[in-house]
């Protein structure tokens, strides 16, 4: 074990930077292994800070010279930066450093990927480019000159001038260094234009490697829709003459909102019907919107420090979800988001990595770009809107934008605009930001005379470092249904503020069925015991689409839990209810496809753990297989009918309607494959002209154990398309039988197309192993060992992606002692690696604690 753990930083220690930065001039002389960066920076003492020598961040830089006001100086250089005595007045700092983009495999700072130069500075990558106060509350105006032989030289802001081998950019909007970006490459563009509401003409470009130009049209349309939507819904206009998006193959995350120059993982922007699934299209549309929306929530108003990350991320996720709801189906989007929230955020919140939406300390900030900060952060915005109402939300946002434009703001600033607009005291609401953990909401009912009473009790289990949890304000959207299924009380929001609280409803003629937490109005776990017949009733009658889906999901889950823990047979009530639901053509096909999907293996493990069992991954896998087979029999007449009825004849479009139809038809194909051994899937594979159909067919063939020929054909067809080959890698791992998963994964890591240097490929292979629940948690421990071994290989190459993938182990204490021993061995072996990164050390240490 490591002895010296890296030191954390604390929110409570925040102090403003000693200096203000009026302007920054950067010159880049690009060369793959020896890039020179010359900086000229105007500093002046910050009147709001205590005077101190100048401390600049810098990592892995070779300082060639430095000057203050033209006079050479010799700063004191250490591993993390430099310190220099400076005049007690405004001064100009100049320095030249050398960096090596080619050797930068961590993909942070300036790096080379497939012959292009690219940057990633959030959170603290700018310090790998030059010496600078690399913190978000230091904002400045950047002018950038790029010298390089590439045909396309891009940076933030507006183009100023260019010539043979150079280009100059000026960004008039003050920004923190994490929003700096530079791209240089022999790229081609997909151009377009947008005119803003006030008449600004904006040039739009999506820049890609030659050969990818045909995959830009959808992203461009999504961008224009995002721009129009933010004007209409939030009154936010774009503020530069040009907006560039660049696609890059090697990227740690999804995308980055650099001012005027968004950089995207190519998987999150490139799309075509032949190579992208409907789900890919929906995700690309959401990420394009997300990064664009950051222009206001993130860039014009940024974060004071990294503890405030949720200020921009939670809000921007919330905004992109609103956008998707408007573009597509709001209920379907809500259900998808809650599935993801439970799978990723609840999992995190109920394990060793639990942390508040606004953490109070961190070792490595990159480890806090989490489902909690992003997705739970977005849930908090949604709750706030529910509590204050739509109209007050709109006024609060207007005030936020006018009051804080140009600021590096805090959660306190954010809550204050809501308090000022509504006169409400939000101090209790603030606990949602400060306390980790998922509240459990217990419910009891009472019906007497015509009075119906609901009593709620809230309780949040302890999380690391937070044993006690005071009660939070919880908005509980409630409806009541009468015995014949009519809604007798339309949705109203109960505001729970106490640890225990009752709500009474008079004039209720007979005992109602409550529909609690409609639309998933708060990120809590509702523990109310319910009968299967009540769930079937809600699935049939609830007017709230989320709770309708939720009832079906709970019915499926409880049946599966009984199968796993008591050896019960598949639940007939569930099978009947699912048949009734699936054949109801008045229901949106996309909704029906979601309602046909079963809880994931990991969800079931989470539920079993919650109920006090140690989950047996193989038993979970077996139960799902049994239930799927039983469903296939139950729906054997309906499935072919659905399959035929929902084939799309029109030319492919990735819209909500067509993708809903394809989702339902493919759900039907899943049922059919269970009985026909894959004949229909083979037919679909052979005639598929889009990736949604082709991939679903291939998955079914793998499932049926006859995927070999199709896999080979698929590889042959797509071997030159990296993004499709990622799917080829992951599908094989995801569909590997539990006892074969580690072997199949290992064999794939020996494939010539496998490389740990490309995060997408690594995730497609080893990340998929972590998602194959029964395979990863196989009793042999082979899954744990293989992943840990590869994380040891990846850590020296790319600490950020390594650390992120450690989350595969965050649930290790749920399982039996033998598995725990094997998981601990694997983690300790990883922790023992010489020179293990700070990123991975923090993650493994927290997981083991
Ligand atoms: N701000 C980016 C986004 O959400 C993500 C950047 C993540 N960077 C990181 N180093 N973890 O859109
Ligand atoms: Zn974001």
From TrEMBL:
Protein name per the record: Aminopeptidase N
The organism of origin for this protein: Roseovarius nubinhibens (strain ATCC BAA-591 / DSM 15170 / ISM)
GO molecular function: alanyl aminopeptidase activity; metallopeptidase activity; zinc ion binding
Residue ranges of domain Peptidase M1 membrane alanine aminopeptidase in the record: 218-432
Top-level lineage group: Bacteria
SUPFAM superfamilies found in the cross-reference section: Leukotriene A4 hydrolase N-terminal domain, Metalloproteases ('zincins'), catalytic domain
Domain Aminopeptidase N-like N-terminal: 82-179
NCBIfam families tied to this protein: pepN_proteo
Segments forming domain Peptidase M1 alanyl aminopeptidase Ig-like fold: 437-527
């Amino acid at each position: 074990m490591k002895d010296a753990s890296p030191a954390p930083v604390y929110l409570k220690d925040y102090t403003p930077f000693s200096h203000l930065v009026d302007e920054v001039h950067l010159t880049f002389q690009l060369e793959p292994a020896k890039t020179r960066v010359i900086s000229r920076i105007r500093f002046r003492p910050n009147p709001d800070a205590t005077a101190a020598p100048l401390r600049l961040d810098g990592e892995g830089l070779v300082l060639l010279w430095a000057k203050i006001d033209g006079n050479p100086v010799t700063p004191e250089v250490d591993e993390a930066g430099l310190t220099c005595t400076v005049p007690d007045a405004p001064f100009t700092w100049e320095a030249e450093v050398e960096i090596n983009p080619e050797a930068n495999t961590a993909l942070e700072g300036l790096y080379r990927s497939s012959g292009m130069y690219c940057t990633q500075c959030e959170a603290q990558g700018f310090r790998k480019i030059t010496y600078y106060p690399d913190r978000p509350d230091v904002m400045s105006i950047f002018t950038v000159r790029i010298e390089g032989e590439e045909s396309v030289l891009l940076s933030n802001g507006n183009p100023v001038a260019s010539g043979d081998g150079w280009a100059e950019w000026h960004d008039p909007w003050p920004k923190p260094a994490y929003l700096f970006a530079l791209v240089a490459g022999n790229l081609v563009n997909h151009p377009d234009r947008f005119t803003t509401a006030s008449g600004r003409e904006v040039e739009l470009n999506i820049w890609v490697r030659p050969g990818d130009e045909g995959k830009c049209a959808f992203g461009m349309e999504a961008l224009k829709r995002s721009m129009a939507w933010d004007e209409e819904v939030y009154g936010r206009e774009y503020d530069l003459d040009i907006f560039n998006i660049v696609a890059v193959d090697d990227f740690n995350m999804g995308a980055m909102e650099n001012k005027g120059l968004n950089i995207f993982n190519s998987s999150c922007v490139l799309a075509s019907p032949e190579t992208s699934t409907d789900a890919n299209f929906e995700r690309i549309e959401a990420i394009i919107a997300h990064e664009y929306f950051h222009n206001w929530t993130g860039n014009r108003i940024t974060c004071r420090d990294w503890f405030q990350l949720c200020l921009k991320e939670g809000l921007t996720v919330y905004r992109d979800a609103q956008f998707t709801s408007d573009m597509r189906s709001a209920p379907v989007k809500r259900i998808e988001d809650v599935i993801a929230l439970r799978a990723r955020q609840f999992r995190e919140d109920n394990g060793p990595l639990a942390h508040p939406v606004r953490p109070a300390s961190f070792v490595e900030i990159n480890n806090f770009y989490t489902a909690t900060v992003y997705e739970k952060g977005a849930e908090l915005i949604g709750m706030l809107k529910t509590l204050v109402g739509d109209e007050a939300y709109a006024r609060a946002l207007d005030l936020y934008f006018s009051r804080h434009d140009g600021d590096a703001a805090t959660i306190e600033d954010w809550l204050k605009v809501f308090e000022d607009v509504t006169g409400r005291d939000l101090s209790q609401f603030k606990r949602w930001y400060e306390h980790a953990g998922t509240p459990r909401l217990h419910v009891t009912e009472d019906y007497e005379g015509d009075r119906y009473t609901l009593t709620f009790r809230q309780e949040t289990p302890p999380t690391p470092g937070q044993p006690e949890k005071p009660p939070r304000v919880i908005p509980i959207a409630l409806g009541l249904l009468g015995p014949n299924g009519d809604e007798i009380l339309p949705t109203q929001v109960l505001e729970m503020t106490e640890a225990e609280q009752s709500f009474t409803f008079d004039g209720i003629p007979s005992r109602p069925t409550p529909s609690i937490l409609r639309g998933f109005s708060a990120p809590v776990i509702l523990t109310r015991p319910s009968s299967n017949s009540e769930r079937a009733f809600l699935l049939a009658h609830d007017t709230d689409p989320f709770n309708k889906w939720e009832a079906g999901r709970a019915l499926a889950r409880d049946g599966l839990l009984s199968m796993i823990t008591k050896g019960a047979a598949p639940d007939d009530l569930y099978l009947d209810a699912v048949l009734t639901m699936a054949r109801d053509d008045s229901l949106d096909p996309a909704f029906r496809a979601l309602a046909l999907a079963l809880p994931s293996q990991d969800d079931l493990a989470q539920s079993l753990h919650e109920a006090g069992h140690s989950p047996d991954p193989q038993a979970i896998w077996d139960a799902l297989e049994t239930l799927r087979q039983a469903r296939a029999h139950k729906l054997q007449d309906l499935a072919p009918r659905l399959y035929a009825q929902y084939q799309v004849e029109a030319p492919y479009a990735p819209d909500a309607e067509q993708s809903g139809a394809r989702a339902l038809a493919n759900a039907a194909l899943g049922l059919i494959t269970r009985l026909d051994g894959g004949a229909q899937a083979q037919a679909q594979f052979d005639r598929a002209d889009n990736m949604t159909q082709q991939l679903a067919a291939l998955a079914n063939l793998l499932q049926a154990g006859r995927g070999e020929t199709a896999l080979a054909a698929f590889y042959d067809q797509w071997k030159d398309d990296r993004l499709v080959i990622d799917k080829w890698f992951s599908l094989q791992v995801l569909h590997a039988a539990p006892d074969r998963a580690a072997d199949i994964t290992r064999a794939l890591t020996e494939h010539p197309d496998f490389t740990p240097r490309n995060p997408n490929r690594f995730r497609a292979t080893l990340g998929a192993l972590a998602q194959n629940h029964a395979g990863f948690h196989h009793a042999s421990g082979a899954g744990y060992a293989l992943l840990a071994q590869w994380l040891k290989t990846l850590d020296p190459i790319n600490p950020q992606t390594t650390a992120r993938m450690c989350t595969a182990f965050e649930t290790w204490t749920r399982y039996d002692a033998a598995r725990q021993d094997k998981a601990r061995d694997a983690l300790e072996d990883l922790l023992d690696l010489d020179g293990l990164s700070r990123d991975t050390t923090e993650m493994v240490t927290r997981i083991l604690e």
